[in-house]
Amino acid sequence: MKILIVEDERLTRESLVDSLRLRGYSDIETATDGNDALQTLDRFKPDLILSDIRMPGMDGLQLLGHIRDKGIHGVFIIISSYDSFEFAQKAVRLGAFSYMLKPIDDRELEDQLERAETSIRREQEQRNENADTGLLARKYRNLAQRQAIQKFVEEEHLNEEERWTALREADIRFEHPLYLVAKAKIDGYADPESHLSVVDQSLYAFGIANIASELMLHGGIDTYPFTQDDSIVFLLNVPVEYASSATERLETLWSHVAAQVRSHLKLTLTIGVGSLTDNIADVNDSYTQASKAAMSRIMGGGNRVYFAGSSEEKRIEATIAIDYLTEQKLLHGLEQGSKEAVRGLIRELYSPYFSRSNEFIGSLMKLNFSVAFTLFKLMHQLDTPPERFLGSELKVYRQMNQCADLSSLLSYCENMTDVCIDEIQAGRKLNPDTSMAKALAYIVEHYDQDIGLASVSEHVHMSPAYFSKQFKLKYNQNFIEFLIQFRINKAKELLKSGAYTAQEVSRMVGINDEKHFFRTFKKITGLTPGSYKKGN
After folding, report:
1. Do residues 330 and 374 touch, judged by C-beta distance below 8 A?
2. CA–CA distances in Å: residue 100 to residues 90, 110, 111
3. What's the Rg (C-alpha) of the chain?
4. The 3-state secondary structure of 414-462, one letter per residue
5. CA gap 103, 11 in Å, rounded
6. For the HTH araC/xylS-type domain, which residue ranges apply (predicted)?
7. Burial class of residue 467 in the structure, from the number of CB atoms within 10 Å of its CB (0-12 exposed, 13-18 middle, 19+ buried)
8. What pTM value is reported for the model?
9. What is residue 476's predicted lDDT score, i.e. its pLDDT?
10. Collapsed DSSP state (helix, strand, coil) of residue 311
11. What percent of the chain has pLDDT over 70?
12. What 3-state class would DSSP assign to 29?
């Protein structure tokens, strides 16, 4: 979209230019007053004119009148420091599109730009109804179309007929016979030091999509973008002439996109490109390939274009899932509060990938999922639900996959486990007796069953060794001695009632070996069960 800014105040004029460039608009001209603007219009045909209302010489309203008298098309937006109904009424009567007050709010500016683009598109479609303007018209899609495209790309189980139906319902028609999905990830998006607000993220995504769509359009490619976390996903509808040299031509186009984003938005991108297909049923495969290719930045670095590989991932001697032994070591490190031990285990898991090439990114993603799943499971075992301070398991997995490289991924995991240990320790300081009280309640309820150190420690989500140590600190008695004494005390109560034989009491307190029960009872009380029952 070509834009002309008419503003006599230099700082305001430059600020508007910067705001527009941030949103991906590059074809911008400026004028200092109405007369200067009319001269500019002789060589520059803007789609949108942003004009101050009060300027020396010819003001904004006079300029608007001249433009309409000349029959010049274009959306005209008046900008003023004065909230005057009279000005606004006159501007509307002369054909102004809208009226904005200074200082200009970012959200209002973006809303006006979107409305202006919609209006321009409709005018272009009406003026060129019988002309070949399909490429430009398809550039502008409303929200419903973007949602339809997103479903078309992401849904794995749609068959070919269902995909065509979804497109027809959204009034989307492809001009070319080939399809491809690309994913552009913003480098450093997950870095806490980037401090990107939600508004900033939206603006940058808008700008990137705008730049890419314009450049692809110059290459004859129709572009259908939608946003997704730290990424902008593009469905490309590609002319048939790309079939013989798609990789070379697309690499040139995407490199140009990345260069323009660096220049105008001061951001770097990692771009993953899926395979080209002539079957819309395979679009989801291209999307999966593009996502995997974009993930290659973790191992190969960012600020690059990665194309989906054609070969199957090779077998490697690297971890893709956490085994039981490692899981138990992690549990022990978490409950002991040993940050270095846990960090060491995390480094062991990821160390093989530092010497691997990008083709192993699929295995790395599996490991990321295994780490997130295992950590959440262990934290729940330790009565410290991680959702409270980490968010959902899926959110953590996505953030791991958004890391710029292996070093930042490792740092993210280590920081995450440090936070988990801090939360475990804080919970114990606030509720130091909770686990032991839970263990005692379990003994009272299940003493008559086959319970022991393993089952009780599992109930309170501790390792047997750690539970035994904590139990003795709390009750000044080891667990086995405590359980035996508790059972014998219960046996004494039952024997005193006179309602049960010694053999029955033995089973009722969870000691199925009668000889063992007799020996233990006499050792603790000095009497046999029979003598104790008779009151001797």
Report:
1. yes
2. 14, 12, 11
3. 35
4. HHHHHHHHHHHHHHHHHCCCHHHHHHHHHHHHHCCCCCCHHHHHHHCCC
5. 12
6. 437-535
7. buried
8. 0.47
9. 86
10. coil
11. 89
12. strand
Residue 91: is it exposed, middle or buried by C-beta count within 10 angstroms (0-12/13-18/19+)? buried
Condensed to tens digits (0 to 9), the pLDDT of residues 164-190 reads: 888 888 888 899 999 999 999 888 765
pLDDT of 485 above 70:
yes
Cα angle 328, 333, 338; round to 5: 170
Instruction: Specify the pLDDT at position 319.
Output: 53
Complete edge-to-edge strand list for the sheet that includes strand 231-238: 222-228, 231-238, 178-186, 269-273, 305-307
Residue in this structure with the two tokens 């930042």, named with its chain if needed: 408
Cα–Cα dist 282/287, whole Å = 9
**Whole-number average pLDDT of the chain:** 84
Give 277's DSSP letter.
Answer: B
Residue 41: CB atoms within 10 Å:
20
Which residue is associated with the tokens 């603790």? 524
pLDDT tens across 196-235, in order? Answer: 666 677 788 889 999 999 999 988 999 999 988 778 999 9
**Selection from 15, 179, 211, 19 nearest residue 109 by Cα:** 19
- Whether the per-residue pLDDT at 192 is higher than 80: the answer is no
Dihedral sign for Cα atoms in the order 25, 29, 32, 34: negative
Which H/E stretch holds residue 306?
strand 305-307
Dist. CA 289–CA 179, nearest whole Å: 13
What lies within 8 Å, CB to CB, of 46 at 6+ separation is: 2, 3, 4, 29, 74
**Contact by Cβ (8 Å): 50, 79:** yes
* H or E element, residue 204: helix 198-218
Closest to 221 measured CA to CA, from 268, 147, 269, 273: 273
Three-class DSSP category at 77: strand
Q: How confident is the model over 432-454, as pLDDT tens digits?
A: 567 788 888 889 899 999 899 98
pLDDT above 70: residue 429? no
Q: List the structure tokens of 185.
A: 């990830």
- Strands 222-228 and 75-80 come out as unpaired
456-484 per-position pLDDT tens digit? 888 887 778 878 888 888 888 899 999 99
